[in-house]
Amino acid sequence: MFIGRKAELQFLKQKYEADGGQLIVLYGRRRVGKTETLRHFCQDKPHIFFSCRECSDKLQLKSFSEKMLQEDIPAKRYLSTFPDWDSAFSSITGLPWGDKKRLLVIDEFPYMCRENPSIPSILQNLWDELLKDANVMIILCGSAMSFMERELLAEKNPLYGRATGIYKMTEMGFYDAVRFFPDYSPADQVLAYSILGGIPHYLRQFDPALSLSQNIKCNILTKGCPLYSEAEFLLHQELRETAVYNSLIEAIALGSTRLNEISQKALVENTSKTSVYLRNLIELGIVRREFSIDVSLKETANSSRGIYRLTDHFFRFWYAFPFTSYSELEAGDVDGVYQYAVAPFLHEFAAFPFEEICRQYVQELQKADALPFRYARAGRWFGRTTVRDTDSPDGLRIGETEIDLVAFSRQKKEYLIGECKFKSSPFRYSDYLNTLAKLTPQKEHAEFYYALFSESGFDDSLREEAEKNDRLLLFPLDAIVNCRLEKPSPRFQA
């Protein structure tokens, strides 16, 4: 069963139905589901789907020729292999598909260009002279992020400005990912997403008929299963010096977020080297550099600002748990590692991904016009602000803190402050007071609303407060996971 990717399929459908030639560049990190999405898009249409290989240019041309010459095109009568790429690519116009678009998908396009760097120039010439006005759609797909972004889409590349559509595929969101586990409880759906994220290849490794604990043990911790070697395989395929990258990823997975902290934890001599390594991990979609939601574009250029997070949930899980118990797993102690190194800490591990899920839920609420106002920007906030301090005269002080969600309107006249608790105990009124104290100076010039998200509900005092305060919104786990989108009533939600 094919799950999700509605936006990607709609984008491709619109381009397919548009008049004239279409040259589409679709790219994204490995395992994100590009090939499967393209095959699903093509399945009800006449098409040529060519998957490039890591081979010589002559072999690549031979394979492409065989694929094209399977169709009843004029060249089939007198050729067994095209003599060059110009004639091979131009043959697409001869496909005998009536008024249907001539659809050609070239998957892993960077492999084709690696052995023949002139391929983009050949395509550019054909596009300008023949294909742009023809009834064709060519999709160039690739996983080599640096090639796709720095070369193929760069101004110096011959194909620059020719693409009629550029789409970067990212991982699935929570609400598509949990469709892989329809019978899991809401809490286990959160835990499964916290472990696997939204990468379809990872999600398919879990058997929805097995419990979460069985899946972790059988499909991650057991030597020989695909996910056991996934992290090592991907790093070896994409990078050199994998030992250094292992140390950096482990440092981030275990809680180091600042450049200096990561360098020290990973035992890298200086931060400039660490920056280079981290930049490579960012290109692969494993790490991201994150800034507080309120920083300006100018501040993001400062190399010392921002924090580093693992964007890939599975890498975060692997380096937080199995990677640190690798010797025991190699010896086959799966049950022991799960019982003592994974299970006691899994719930706490899911707290950070739960914040991401809550932010996705707020995005869905915005789409449904179910928020008190329409926000312009939303994300995590971190920095120095007012925090609650019962020992100070006015109950407040200035300190470093984080806020799970801050959303504000275009003129910053309205703020939504969100706090997320993935815990076995209810969200307490005292926690709400701590949230209430933050960003106090901004309250002189803006309206503030509060959204509290909780796995285990809310204590009596908080529910009573929500009954009389229409600026306090309470969201329990069931509403979040099942994406209830009606305008929230504090009485109903609590």
From TrEMBL:
Residues in domain DUF234? 318-424
Name the residues that span the membrane: none
**Which one Pfam family would you cite for this protein?**
ATPase_2
Gene Ontology terms, MF aspect: ATP binding
Every copy of the ATPase domain together lies at 2-205
Signal peptide residue numbers? none
Q: Which Gene3D superfamilies match?
A: P-loop containing nucleotide triphosphate hydrolases (3.40.50.300)
Keywords for the protein's UniProt record, in alphabetical order: ATP-binding, Nucleotide-binding
The protein's name: ATP-binding protein
Organism for this UniProt entry: Candidatus Eisenbergiella merdavium
